Amino acid sequence: MKHSFNPASLLPLYASCCVSAVERLCMIDTVLKRVQFPLYNWLEMT
Known about the structure:
By secondary structure, the chain is mainly alpha-helical.
């Protein structure tokens, strides 16, 4: 019983996982920036 393992078949899976992780990080980063700027402005005003 010969089972050939092809690492290239996993590349699309890894790529999609990396892309989704990067997109999630970028989304969190933009949300944090949107929350931080009004917070900083409010803290400077008070």
